[in-house]
Every structure is written in C-alpha cells, then in structure tokens.
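Recall from the previous lesson that a structure prediction takes nothing but the amino acid sequence as input. Here we apply that procedure to Acetate kinase from Leyella lascolaii. The sequence below is the only information supplied.
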Amino acid sequence: MKILVLNCGSSSIKYKLYNMDDHSVMAAGGAERIGLDEAFVKVTMPDGEKKKIMHDMPDHKEGVNFVFSLLTDPEIGAIKSLDEIDAVGHRIVQGGDLFEKSVIVDESVERGIESLCDLAPVHNAGHLKGIRAVDKLMPDVPQVCVFDNAFHSTMPDYAYLYAVPYELYEKYHVRRYGFHGTSHRYVSQRVCEFLGRDISTQRIITCHIGNGASVTAVKFGKCVDTSMGLTPLAGVMMGSRSGDIDASAVTYIMEKLGLQPQEMAEYLNKQSGVLGISGVSSDMREVEAAAADGNSRARLALDMYCYRIKKYIGAYAAAMGGVDIIVWTAGVGENQTDVREDSCKGLEFLGIKIDHEANNTQGKEAVISAPDSKVTVCVIPTDEELMIAKDTMALLQK
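The prediction returns the following tokens.
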C-alpha cells in the first residue's frame, strides 16, 4: 500500500509518499509561497540532495497538482501513475472537541474542520484547501484526517479547563487542547518499543522541543496533561512564541504599544520567545553560538528556555506521581545537547541523572541517562508523518 501524507499550511504543502510494506519513504518535499510571487517546491532526491524547482502556484489546487506531477515525473518521480496512491493522510492542527481520533474524510468531517477555523484560522483553512484540492484531482482516492490534538483528548476535565466562567467552555469551547499530539503519541510508543517496556506501566514525559515546543505527561499510554493550550502559544518558551504569560501583562502591553488583538497575537507568536529575549534569532543554534561569544542576552534566553522546560518536567512528575521515562524529540530536543543537559540539571532529587558522554548524540535513538539514573532519559527522533500514514492505513483496513 502506498500512502501520501500531506501537511497543508496557509501558503505551503509538505508531503511524503510512503510504501507501507516496509514504511520506506519513496518521495518527500515541500511547496512554499503558494499564492505569492516566486513560489517553489523543494524536493528531496533519493541520494538526499535537495532540488529547488520554481513554479507559479496561485492556489492550493495548483500546488497539489504540481506536487502530483513531480511524483510521476520520469526523471525525479517515484511512481508511474497517481493510480498507485491508495490513500492520502492529512495533518490537521485543530480538531477541537469534535474529533478525538483519526477519521476518513466525508462532507461532515469537512464541515467540522471548517467550524473550528475560529480556533486555528490559518492552519485549518490551509488544511481544508488541501483536502478539497485532492478531492478535485483524485476524487476516488480515500482521504484521512489525523488531528494534532486528538492524543490529548484523554486529559481529565480538571486538567484541560481554564478557571474562567464555565459558560465560555459550553458556548465557545474555550479550553486547553494541546498540539504536537501525533509526535507525542509516536515517541511515547516508540520509546517503550526501544526500551522493551510495556507502555501501560510507564509514566512518561515527552519533550517535543523545536521552534514550537510542548511538553506532555503520558501516564500508562494516555495523555493526562500538556503544556500548549487553546492555541500553540501557551506553555514553554519557544523560538518566537512567549509561552506562558500573565493575561494582565498582555492587556498592559497592548495599552502601552497601542496594539489591536490580532497585532498582539502576532507580537506574542512571532516577535517573542527566544528571539525577543536574545535579539539574535529564533534559531537555537545561532543563539547558542552568540552565547558562546559572550552575548549576555543570548545567555539569558538560553537560561530562561531551559528553566521553563525544567519546571514542566517537575510539574508533570508531580501530576503523575513520579516519572519512569523522559523523551527528547524534535529539532532542538534531538540535536541540542546543552539544552537537554541544562534542562535536567537540578532534577537529581527526582532520580534524573544525565550521562554527559552518552548525551553527546544527535538525531538518533539513544539512552542519555547515567546507568544509576532511576529515570531513563532518551532521545527519540519523531516521525509524525509515519504516524499519519499508519493511522490512514489502519482506518482503510477496517
């Protein structure tokens, strides 16, 4: 079975084509600047080289159509005909409380995703464009939606509700949803396979730390709490997002800077976090380099970043009555050794002890805790696309 996984944003389409017989990636790439000038697709070649192809893509239909043409291209394509694609799986950021598991797309699913656009206007609108583009180009091919927040649907109400009038939840669905759920689900399952443990007996803290970042408490295979909230802004400090902030500080800043609500949202999402504190970059590699050169604000940004991750690890250990495994994943979590080590410093009282030499690893599965550490700390590279492909195949086989 061959499954195409699509992640459609407001002006982008990321894709991977899987052969599910062996889970191998047959093709991968991404279209950028859809609807804008100088649109292009970056294709990953079989030898790992990336090829950039300029192509005018006024809308998602043309973007999907061009991606399909590249998949069947005689020189760089992976298949001879689109008929070889058995299904398409989509990443959907916001499923609200309508979708608690992956579903096969029909008209009611599309209407449901559309009804949730207020909660994720940019993301969900882009996802819908991708679904509808595929429907027009390949109407007989089944499509599946895998929701980013579905894994977090097992949180108890006392964990996901905000302490605001209950009517806001009833009328407007104001609550904590969480994101990166597909990644948290994948790495919590994979780490138990890697260690040979039964997930139903393990208390796991998964740290998805990239430009966007979230920490999740997984108790006996189910999410019981997560750091992101109604939107991906909440939780730990991120590349350009503030993370947790006093709501009154938000209104205070709006008054001082004369910002409207949407402008304030942009300010907290795109000008804050590591970028806002360091003044250098939202890229942790550049901030670490600046700190090493003596930039005090870059050093401060790193200290704040690791301190906030540490606080969430401690909080979730308390929430679960202990922790057995900690997992680091995503771009920073998989590759920035100092962030992992600094975030775990001071947690020895919980039985967490990092092995400095073992931690000197990047981008591959590894145990990085010391032999005498009571908590096993691991690096597990995430694979959200494979998780989406697996969900898609499982639904079709039912």
